[in-house]
Amino acid sequence: MSARSGSHQLSNGLMVSGRPEQQLKERQPTMGSRAVPYTGGDVKKSGELGRMYGVDLSTGDHHHHPPPAVPPKLPSRQPSSSQHNSGSARSGPNSGQMGKNSGPMSKKSSSSSFSGPMTPIQPTGLITSGPLGSSSSNRRSGQLDTPSAPTSFNKAVYGSAVTSLNGEVKLGFRVSRVAMWMFLVVVVMGLVVGVFLMAAVKKPLILVAVAAVLIPVVVIFVWNYAYRNRGVLGFLKKFPDAELRGAVDGQFVKVTGVVTCGSIPLETSFQRVPRCVYAASELYEYRGFGGKPANNKQRWFSWGCRYSEKYVADFYISDFQSGLRALVKAGYGAKVAPFIKPTVVVDITKDSKKLSPNFLRWLSDRSLSSDDRVMRLKEGYIKEGSTVSVMGVVRRHENVLMIVPPSEPISTGCRWPCCLLPTYIEGLILTCDESQGADVVIPV
Q1: What is the dihedral of CA 116, 118, 122, 123, to 10 degrees?
Q2: Nearest to 227 by CA among 219, 237, 215
Q3: What does the buried/exposed string (b/e) look like for 143-175 if buried means 16 or more CB atoms within 10 Å of the residue's CB?
Q4: Order of strands, edge to edge, in the sheet holding 343-348?
Q5: Are 386 and 258 in contact (CB under 8 A)?
Q6: Which among 78, 81, 113, 269 is most buried, taking Cβ atoms within 10 Å?
Q7: Is the dihedral of CA 132, 137, 140, 141 positive or negative?
Q8: Burial of 77 (0-12, 13-18, 19+ CB in 10 A)
Q9: How far is Cα 382 from Cα 127, in angstroms, rounded to an integer?
Q10: Residue from 155, 150, 157 nearest 358 by CA
Q11: CA 290, CA 241: separation in Å to the nearest integer?
């Protein structure tokens, strides 16, 4: 059996069993140590860091210490490239302080260790990712770009959530076909009888009676065709506003309030007006005698629409009367009838010698020619925060209040004081009375 180990006393007077631990020799540090002076935020006192960034250290009070002794190299072991790169020292015959290759870095070696130009130190002493006002290639994430002029006027490409409207709002008259055929038969019979009596008896009484009936009918139709848009706008303006709080499901209402964008805000194509719920751009051309028409329906000495793009998406409206917020379902291919008056943003006359570069870019992006033509570019939009009137059908689904397009066209009804026949409007109706006069017309 082995002998029992004795006991010993610790430095604090406590007696413990076992042999006292042998004091191991203190291992020499593997890397040279040096006192680091307090810089106080001064880069010139930072030693190696200042030399690495090219700071002149010739002036100022610095604490220079003699370099540590370099152990002689052993011929039996050659240093590898990995040892030079890592700068680590191993215990044993190679232990000791670092050699010259891994020692203090000189200005020349520091500049060759990093690729690219050296970033100067800011006057504050902070090392940043780049100087202020650097080019876009040296920018890092988190920097804000200043707003600049648009470099492209490409046509916006939206998904199915945005409705693309084609052409103007369709307004039509609805008259019973039976009544129309009966009227035409009576007119034809009256003309035949009148011509027969005129030839036989030589009395134009029947023809005068037929003309007395036809002339007022023709005048009424011409009046309704010319005054149709004004009559519809008057009807929409006089239609009473409804309160959403008391509206029942399926009721046709008119709601007036402030609009906010939905999940997809829109932007006008030329002026780049952001956060719109409705955006439209239309190019009109004037056709003189013998000129080329902008479309198939354009007549001489009139303006015709050559190009049009109109977009509308889902948005929210806050009712003025009840304060409730409703979702207006105008996207996903819904039928919408916007009555928004556009404003002229570009006016090109015959005296225009040089066109605006932005307008030329807008035309080229849409493959439109810019030859000698009298043109006007109009834009209309409903911006977020505008006061808008919406006419549609109320729908309630899982505590969500919505306004959707009606399933059937809306009739204005007969307005006998104005001699107006019923006019039908199809789709969700949008009106905005706010002026867009803040836009600047560019005469080119």
Answers
A1: -160
A2: 219
A3: eeeeeeeeeebeeeeeeeebbebeeebebeeee
A4: 163-165, 302-312, 276-287, 375-383, 343-348, 442-443
A5: yes
A6: 269
A7: positive
A8: exposed
A9: 47
A10: 150
A11: 49
Decide: 358 and 188 in contact? Cβ < 8 Å: no
- For residue 337, give the amino acid letter: A
Q: Specify the higher pLDDT residue, 105 or 209.
A: 209
Tell me if 119 sits within 8 A of 127, measured CB to CB. yes
Place of tokens 């709601």: 255
Point out which residues pair with 377 in neighbouring strands.
283, 346
Of 367, 379, 163, 382, the closest CA to residue 270 belongs to 379
Question: For 302, what's the count of Cα atoms within 13 Å in the CB-facing half-sphere?
Answer: 10
* Torsion of Cα atoms, 238 then 244 then 250 then 255, to 10°: 30
pLDDT in tens, 76-135: 444 443 344 434 333 344 444 444 444 444 444 444 444 444 545 444 444 433 333 333
What CA–CA distance (Å, rounded) separates 265 from 196?
A: 69
Length in residues, the chain: 444
**pLDDT one-digit tens code per residue, 224-272:** 888 888 889 999 999 999 989 889 999 999 999 999 999 999 999 999 9
